[in-house]
Design a protein that fits this description.
The chain is mainly β. The protein is 0% helix and 49% strand. The termini are far apart.
Length: 160
């Protein structure tokens, strides 16, 4: 089923990337100055905008508690329901990458990039890097979502 949504007022485009069980959507929109902003809100267009970084914020997903994950030029981020934004850190430096999916337990997944252009799938919680996601026999894994089941089928290697 397709559900029409109202575009963000004054935007040049509106892109929805996630929805929670309360029908709160999350996404990104562009403005005429070339900037991209994050937003969340109800299907009828009652949106709240936010920026996790200057000029570019890409929202990935929202869970039922209102935590939002995504990416900015600063790195992967987690936005808490109180509006605070936390850049994910790996070894005390911002994780260059993107967060795509978050579950009801607050665990989120995404892809980090190293200096050589390599990709590494990761999982995190409370804006803290917890480890890598590996699927045996697969390379270039880019997780887009995570359910509430206990971590198990993929290999979750702790790196903290």
């Amino acid at each position: 089923m397709l559900i029409p949504i109202a575009p963000v007022q004054g935007s040049t485009y509106t892109s929805v990337t996630g929805i929670n069980d309360s029908n709160i959507i999350v996404g990104s929109y562009g403005t005429a100055d070339g900037a991209q902003h994050g937003f969340f809100g109800s299907l009828d267009g009652q949106y709240t905008s936010f920026d996790a970084g200057r000029l570019w914020t890409q929202s990935g997903d929202i869970n039922n508690a209102g935590y939002i994950v995504g990416a900015t030029v600063k790195g992967a981020f987690e936005r808490y329901p109180d509006g605070s934004i936390h850049i994910l850190k790996f070894e005390h430096a911002p994780l260059v990458g993107e967060a795509y999916g978050i579950n009801g337990k607050g665990v989120f997944v995404g892809t980090g990039f190293d200096n050589d252009g390599g990709r590494h799938a990761f999982y995190a919680k409370s804006a803290k890097y917890k480890g890598e996601v590996e699927i045996p026999g697969q390379s270039g894994v880019e997780p887009r979502g995570i359910n509430d089941a206990e971590i198990g089928r993929a290999s979750w290697r702790e790196r903290v």
